[in-house]
């Protein structure tokens, strides 16, 4: 394998793992909330949450298409 081909393969591998890492960190997630597993249930927490509100006060069901989660944990219509 030539030196140039090795460089291309290395570049593609680094790019692939960079995209996988960014996806794992939620860079491509368009939802306004994230899921927090908590024992046998999951809390749905707004990305812009008020840090003075505990995770336990957020809903345990995802919002419907016409709803959103407020920074304080209420589900409201859009």
Structural class: alpha+beta
Strand order of the largest sheet: 1-2
Shape: elongated
Q: Can you give the helix content as a percent range?
A: 25-40%
Order of helices and strands: HEEEE
Tally of DSSP helical segments:
1
Described by strand count, sense and barrel closure, the largest sheet is:
2 strands, antiparallel
Overall average pLDDT? 93
Strand content: 15-25%
The radius of gyration over CA amounts to 19 Å
Strand elements, count: 4
First-to-last CA distance: 57 Å
Low-confidence stretches: none
Question: In summary, what is this structure?
Answer:
By secondary structure, the protein is α+β, with helices and mostly antiparallel strands. The protein has one helix at about 5-25; strands at about 35-40, 40-45, 65-70, 75.
Mind explaining what this structure looks like?
- The chain contains one helix and four strands; from the N terminus they run H-E-E-E-E.
- A hairpin with a 5-residue loop joins strand 3 (67-69) and strand 4.
- The protein has one helix at residues 3-24, and strands at residues 33-38, 41-46, 67-69, 75-77.
- It is 28% helix and 23% strand.
- The strands form two sheets. A two-stranded antiparallel ribbon has the order 1-2. Strands 3-4 form a two-stranded antiparallel ribbon.
- With 78 residues, the protein is an alpha+beta fold.
Features:
1 helix; single chain; elongated; 78 residues; two-stranded antiparallel ribbon; 23% strand; alpha+beta
């Amino acid at each position: 394998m030539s030196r140039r081909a090795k460089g291309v393969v290395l570049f593609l591998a680094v790019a692939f793992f960079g995209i996988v890492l960014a996806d794992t960190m939620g860079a491509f997630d368009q939802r306004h909330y994230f899921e927090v597993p908590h024992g046998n249930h999951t809390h749905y927490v707004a990305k812009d949450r008020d840090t003075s509100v505990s995770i336990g006060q957020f809903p345990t069901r995802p919002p419907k298409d016409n709803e959103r989660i407020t920074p304080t944990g209420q589900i409201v219509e859009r």
